[in-house]
Amino acid sequence: MDLPQLVLLDLKLPKVGGLEVLTQIRQDPRTKRLPVVILTSSNTEADVARSYDLGANSYIRKPVDFSQFMDAVNSLGLYWLVLNEVPPPAENW
């Protein structure tokens, strides 16, 4: 199975909440090391804490301004897809 290099996850999803998605990602041995960045409009401390407790690698509040949002996404891509060293697949351990 080919996995993405990075998951950008919003907490406010229409059918299943982002925290539930994160829980499922971390419970699956194939995806438990997959980098997950929470990219959401939520600014509640409880959401930040719960996201990290469940294994998020980063928590970023979406900028409201579109050009700032695009700058943030470009910076995310540069860091996570170019500079970051990805872990080996979990099944190798």
Detail the topology: elements first, then pairings:
Layout: E1 7-9, H1 18-27, E2 36-40, H2 45-53, E3 58-61, H3 66-83
Parallel strand pairs: 1-2, 2-3
Q: List low-pLDDT spans.
A: none
Q: Name the shape in a single word.
A: globular
Mean pLDDT across residues? 92
What's the assembly state of these chains?
A: single chain
Give the spatial strand order of the biggest sheet. Answer: 1-2-3
Distance between the termini: 17 Å
Mind describing the biggest β-sheet? 3 strands, parallel
What is the H/E string? Answer: EHEHEH
Structural class computed from helices and strand pairing: alpha/beta
Radius of gyration: 14 Å
Strand composition percent: 5-15%
* Share of helix, binned: 25-40%
Determine the number of helices (DSSP H or I, runs of at least 4 residues): 3
Number of β-strand runs: 3
